[in-house]
Structures are given as structure tokens and as C-alpha cells.
From TrEMBL:
Organism of this sequence: Streptococcus varani
Keywords annotated in UniProt: Membrane, Transmembrane, Transmembrane helix
Membrane topology term: Multi-pass membrane protein
Lineage top rank: taxon: Bacteria
Name of the protein in its database record: Membrane protein
Membrane found in the keyword field: yes
Amino acid sequence: MSVFSDAYLAANADNLPPEAIPMLRQRLDALTENQKAYVLAANLKSPTTALIFSIFLGHFGVDRFYIGHIGLGVAKLFLSWMTLGIWPFIDWFLIMGTTRQVNLETLNNSINAATMFQTY
């Protein structure tokens, strides 16, 4: 167990899916000091902020733009009126889990980038 992985996961546990924490701890423990900078540079989004965007600006797709789903944001912007507000309402329940999944993908990509090149 590394102090870095414990501290990083404690600080970001709310932004990640709980079931992925053990796998992430194992991957973070294997990083060298030089590789940890890649992980620290990962831009994780707040699920709570995404939910607030979804509640107040969901009809405009702002929540999807925030998490990086540009295509769904544009579709939601133009089509949410056609669904009579059901799409934004359903997103209130889905956006936090989706944000955590996006954060997991972002973190895995940064770990992969860090381990791709061995730095000595």
C-alpha cells in the first residue's frame, strides 16, 4: 500500500465509481514517482456539479457538455423539447453515475499514458 494511492483515492473517492476503487488502488501502487504526475494532471469532474447543471440547465445540455459528451449535449440542446422534458428529467438520475464513469475512463487513460513510456 502506497501513501500516494491512499491519499489520491481518499481525495477523489466521491468522483469515482466505488466498485473501481480496489482496481485503481492496485494500478496506482504500481506507478513510479515520475509517473504519478500524469495521474495528478487528470481533470476529474464533480458529479455534484454535473447534477446541479442537469437540474438547472439540463434542457440546454450543459450537463453533458460539462462531462465531455459534446454530441449528446448538442442532441439534448436541440431535442429535449421534443421529449417534453423527459430526457432532462431522466438525466437527473443518470448524470452522477455517468460522470463517475467518465472520470474512471479519464483516470485509466492517464495511468495508461504514464505507463506507456518508462521514465527513469
